[in-house]
Amino acid sequence: MHRRRNSREPLLALAGVVLAFAGAGAGVFFMDRFRDNQPELVAFPIQQDTTAAATQGGRTPTAVASVATPPATPATTAVSTATAAATAMTTPAVTPSNGSVILQQASFALPGDATANNGGTIGPFCCRGSTVTIRSAAGDTLGYAYWYKWQGQAYDLPRDGRYVGIFPDILFLVNDAAGADAVISLSASEIAPGVSRTVQAGRLTFTLRFTGAEQITYNGVTYVVEGSLKATLQVEAR
Fold first, then answer.
1. Cα 198 from chain centre
2. 24-28, 144-148, 216-220 — which one is most confidently predicted on average?
3. Phi, psi at 188, each rounded to 5°
C-alpha cells in the first residue's frame, strides 16, 4: 500500500497543490500541501485539494507545452526503470542566438543549480520546490523557473525503510519577470532521459531536457520516482 502524499507546489507564500484555470481573466492558482508525518509503514493516496487560495499575480499561463494524461487502468503492481547518469555543465554569460540580451547563465543542471525555496518565496514561486533565477549580465532579474510540482494523484512508496514520492505527472513552471507565465506539463509515461520540451514566457524561451528518470507502474498507472528526476534547462532571452 501507499501512504497519502501531500504535494509540494509553488504559491505566493501559501501551502497546497492545485493548478486551476477559471475562465477568461482568471489567474493561475497554486497551493502547497505538506506530507503527512505518519509513522506506520502504510501509504494511502492523496486527497485532491480543490480549494484555490491565491493567484500568482493574477496572471494566466501563456502556453502549455504538453498536457499530462496519466493512464487510469488498475492492474497488478510492476516496476520499470529508465535512468540516465547525465551530468549537465553550467555555462557562463552568453549571447542568445535570437537576440541581444546577454545572460549571466543560460544553462542549468536541475535540481542542483536551482535554489531550494525551503518554505519561502523566490520570485513568484513558493514553497517546497526549487527555483532558478534568470538574470542578465548586468544583474537584472529577467525571470524564474520552478522545479517542480504535480497535478494528479501522488503516493508515498515504502522503499528501503523510508518513503519516496511517486508522481503521475510533472509541472515545470516558468515566468518572465515582466508578467508572463507558462507551464511545461508531462505525464509520467512521457518522462524519460532525452525527452525535451520548449515553452515561451514573454521574452524568455525555456527548453527543459530530462537526463534522468525512474518510472514505476502501480495499479497499471505509470509514475516517476521522486529524487530520480534530473534535467537540464536552457534559457534564451530576446
1. 14
2. 144-148
3. -60, -35
**What's the CA gap between 134 and 200, in Å, rounded?**
14
List the strands of the sheet with 78-79, edge to edge: 3-4, 155-159, 162-167, 221-225, 215-218, 78-79
DSSP-based three-state secondary structure for 74: coil
Instruction: Tell whether pTM > 0.85.
Output: no
Phi, psi of 157 (to 5 degrees): -110, 120
17, 171 contact by CB (below 8 A): no
The CA–CA distances, whole Å, from 85 to 68, 82, 233, 234 equal: 25, 10, 16, 19
- Residues 39-97: tens digit of each pLDDT: 333 455 544 333 222 223 333 333 444 333 333 333 333 333 343 333 334 444 455 45
Rounded to whole angstroms, the Cα distance separating 123 from 135 reads 12
Using left for φ > 0, alpha for ψ between -120 and 50, and beta otherwise, residue 147 falls in beta
Grid cell at residue 101: 540580451
Q: Is the dihedral of CA 120, 126, 128, 134 positive or negative?
A: negative
Cβ atoms of 238 and 96 closer than 8 Å: yes
61: its cell numbers: 499561463
Q: How far apart are the first and last CA of the chain?
A: 49
Q: Are 21 and 182 in contact (CB under 8 A)?
A: no
- The C-alpha atoms of residue 50 and residue 48 are separated, in whole angstroms, by 6
> Under a CB-based contact definition with an 8 Å cutoff, are residues 231 and 191 in contact?
no
My answer on whether omega of the bond before 148 falls inside 30° of 0, hence cis, is: yes
Which amino acid does the sequence have at 118?
N
